[in-house]
Amino acid sequence: MLPKDILYRQKMGFAVPLASWFRGPLKQRVRDAVLGERLVGTGIFNPSTLRWLVDQHQSGMRDHSAPLWSLLMFEAFLRTSGLDVGRAAPRASA
């Protein structure tokens, strides 16, 4: 049986281990997406800052998992939406 304080406590969430995933199984995916042409080509981001974020995180010097997650989601949005942010117009489907 579980103790009452465990059984009747309020619901709690759990953390997703993004920091370790971005240094491990998703390391190359993060590097390819964040440093790839899609994000750099928008003109929104400084390529050297993106490289610094990835390098600092993957070396273990800093935990940049939150901004890297945001960049990954923005890159995925650009990839799936067909939106060319550099021109700010959707691409026609082939």
Strand residues, percent: under 5%
Main sheet characteristics: 2 strands, antiparallel
What is the radius of gyration computed over CA atoms, rounded to a whole number of angstroms?
Answer: 18 Å
Strand order of the largest sheet: 1-2
> Tally of extended strands?
2
Mean pLDDT, all residues: 89
Could you tell me how far the N terminus lies from the C terminus, measured between alpha carbons in angstroms?
A: 60 Å
Q: Helical segment tally?
A: 6
Helical percentage: 55-70%
Give the overall silhouette. elongated
**Helix/strand order:** HHHHHHEE
pLDDT below 50 for ≥5 consecutive residues: which ranges?
A: none
Structural class: mainly alpha
Chart the SSEs and their pairings.
Blueprint: H1 4-7, H2 18-23, H3 27-35, H4 37-40, H5 47-59, H6 65-81, E1 83-84, E2 89-90
Antiparallel strand pairs: 1-2
Helix pairs in contact: 3-5
Describe the structure in your own words.
This protein has 94 residues and is mainly α. Helices cover 56% and strands 4% of the residues. It has helices at 4-7, 18-23, 27-35, 37-40, 47-59, 65-81; strands spanning 83-84, 89-90. A two-stranded antiparallel sheet has the order 1-2. Helix 3 (27-35) runs antiparallel to helix 5 (47-59). The mean pLDDT is 89.
Fill in the keyword field for this structure:
single chain; 6 helices; elongated; 94 residues; two-stranded antiparallel sheet; mainly alpha; 56% helix
